[in-house]
Design brief:
Elements (H helix, E strand, L loop, with lengths): L2 H14 L9 H31 L4 H7 L4 H8 L12 E4 L7 H10 L2 E7 L2 E6 L2 E9 L5 H5 L3 E6 L2 E11 L10
Helix pairs in contact: 1-2, 3-4
Length: 182
């Protein structure tokens, strides 16, 4: 088994509460099935987000298909459709299409207007509006660090391999700090 497979196996055993048991009863096996199914859902979601991120970075369907040992067409059919978008509240919208190259500039502009990211799909961010300006930061996937929390950052969303941090500046959108327009 690979190192990754070993890590997943240990995580499933921990999730099922069977990691330290010398023998497994029937209910432990059933718990392992349930934990394995949850792990499968998580891994599939990670794979979808990795494909979405690769596409946003410019990877072709042929390259993605070759990496997954499938044809370009099969990769596009399996991964090419973002998950169904939930109905948006009146204070929500989608920002996009964006790519890994321009999304931060777009998020900065949206933040000046009171929008902050609360979700992401392939080439788009689900945004929520408030009356204050927001800052955005993109990092490689990690847990929120104590130093980030102390600076007022919170996790807006995770979109593997990225985590998007958001911070409310407290500056009103209609503030005099807004750029003047003629």
């Amino acid at each position: 088994m690979s190192t990754l497979g070993d890590a997943i196996g240990h995580a499933v055993l921990d999730e099922a509460g069977a990691a330290d048991k010398p023998a497994l009863a029937l209910e432990d096996h059933i718990a392992l099935i349930a934990a394995s199914a949850r792990a499968d859902d998580e891994v599939r979601a990670i794979l979808q987000r990795a494909v979405d991120a690769a596409r946003a970075a410019g990877a072709s369907w042929a390259t993605i298909g070759a990496e997954l040992n499938m044809s370009r067409q099969a990769a596009q059919q399996r991964f090419g459709h973002p998950s169904a978008a939930a109905d948006l509240d009146e204070d929500e919208r989608w920002l996009g299409p964006v790519s890994v190259f321009d999304e931060m500039a777009e998020l900065d502009l949206a933040g000046l207007e009171g929008w902050h990211t609360i979700g992401a799909e392939s080439s788009a961010h689900r945004m929520r509006r408030s009356d204050t300006r927001w800052e955005h930061r993109r990092s490689v996937w990690h847990a929120l660090r104590a130093s980030e929390r102390a600076e007022g950052w919170e996790i807006g969303c995770r979109a593997f391999p990225w985590v998007y941090l958001v911070r409310d500046t407290g500056v009103p959108v209609t503030s005099s700090a807004a750029p003047a327009t003629d």
